[in-house]
Amino acid sequence: MDIRRLLSIQAERGAKAIGTEHIFKSIEFVIAECRRYIQERSETYRDLEPEAKRQAIKELIISYVMSHPHLVEGYVDEDNRPDTNKLIDRLIEDITDYSILTAAMLDPDIYEIRANGKEIKVEKKGRCIDLTDKEGRILSFDSVEQQDIILRKLLGDVRLTPKDAIVNARTVEGYRVAAIHSSALSPDPEDLSNSGYHAFVLRKFRKLKLELPDLIKHGTLSDNMGRFLALLPEGGLTFVTVGPTASGKTTTNNAILQATPPDIRTIVVQNPSEIDLRKRDATGRVYNDVLHIEAKEKENPSPTDNTMENVQNHILRLSPTLVCFGELRANIEFKNGLIIMQAGHPINATYHADDSEGAIQRYMTAYLAESGNQPSESVLAELTDKINIVIVQMLMRDGTRKIVQISEIIGVDSNNPNKAIVNDLFIYEMADEHEYDEYGKVVNIRGRHKRVGQLSERTIMKLKYRAISKSQYDFLLKPPSDTYDEIETYTGENIINYGKKIRRAQE
Question: What domains can you pick out in the chain, each with its CATH number?
Answer without folding.
Answer: 3-97 (no CATH), 100-203 (3.30.450.90), 212-476 (3.40.50.300)
